[in-house]
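User: Can you help me understand a structure? I only have the sequence.
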Amino acid sequence: KFNSLIGVRRHATMLKLHSLFCILIICLLVDTSYAVIRFGALAGFANASAANSEASLAEGPFGGSAFIDYSIDDRRSVGVEHLRSASLSPLSTACSFTGLFSKWYPYTPQPQYAAADKDLTISTITIRDLSPYVAVGLGFSQTNIPGKYKGDKPANTVGLYAALKGGFEYPVWRNWGARMEYGAAFSFAGTGTVSFPYMMVGFYTFF
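Assistant: Let's start by predicting it. Here is the structure, written out as tokens:
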């Protein structure tokens, strides 16, 4: 048990370092002459299921996400995300996913910052419309779902995950927008397995 605990802590430290590395890579790859940065958060329903050789447990029905987007052009963006599951009984948030994602807007340009009328120096036409998108993600996952009863073993997993998602964005007001997203993340390497389907809504703001 002691060796398992040391291993989980070591993996947790590695995940934090990998997250910082992911942010650095994104900053280096983005064309800063165009890039528009925005950050936001989502919340909604999710169900995380984790299994290893000793236990198979689930956590839900809630989840949340924090993200930073970097616009490459009017149809593409890349970014960093952190997703978590949440349970009220018992109170825990034991599943996390941190990685990179790439989004594509196939039908309309992605929403952009809308300046206030007093800040405009040229004539501008602003169009507000739903902007559907699809996205893929890749990163690192970690779970430590506690057992329901005393003496039950937790479901600990550490590994890589891939994610598929889609959703809609809408420019609400100036530098604020809304997003609805459906997605699922699945582990494909590491110790144990984990799946994380979700539906979330939230807001973002341009930075």
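Now, to help you interpret it: The two ends are 45 Å apart (CA to CA). DSSP finds one helix and eleven strands in the chain. Let me know which part you'd like to focus on.
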